Each structure stands twice: as structure tokens, then as C-alpha cells.
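User: Hi! I'm working on a homework problem where we have to compare a predicted structure to a textbook description. Could you give me the structure for the chain below?
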Amino acid sequence: MTSTAHTHDRPVGDACPYCGWPDRAEPFQVVSRHGTAAGHTVWTRCGCGSLQMRVVDACGMNVVSRSRPAAGVTSGGVGCGV
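Assistant: Happy to help. Predicted C-alpha cells:
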């Protein structure tokens, strides 16, 4: 997936640092969802391949951890070769 979003236009943490896609936007793939005492822990995969751990509670959704995309994936998206 390629994004034309500019990460410098948003506060840090509001978008994927690898592809610039907004954290609250679709599409993302839900890998697993686990209930907790305070809400849910949701593991998702961004369109660029970055695995994200999201905490969803009464305060909303927050990405608390994120991996790099798999090798060969660039900041322009999967297989773009840039």
C-alpha cells in the first residue's frame, strides 16, 4: 500500500512511521484480540506490514508498540522498490 500522507503534518504517534498511514484509518488487519480488565489488547497489521499492539479502553485506542515491516518493505509501501 502506498500513502501520500506526510508524517510531518501530524503529531508523532498518530501515523505509522514506516508508511505514513494514519493509525485510526482502515485498512488494517486484526491479527488477534484479547480482553483485559481495563478493555482490550488488539494486535493489528498495518498495510505496510508493521505489527502493532493497540490498547483499547475507556480513553479510546492507543498504539503502544509497533514493529518494523518485514525485510524488503520500504517506507513507500510493500514492494515499491523506492
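For your comparison, note the following. The longest strand covers residues 28-35. Residues 1-11, 75-82 have pLDDT under 50 and may be disordered. Good luck with the assignment!
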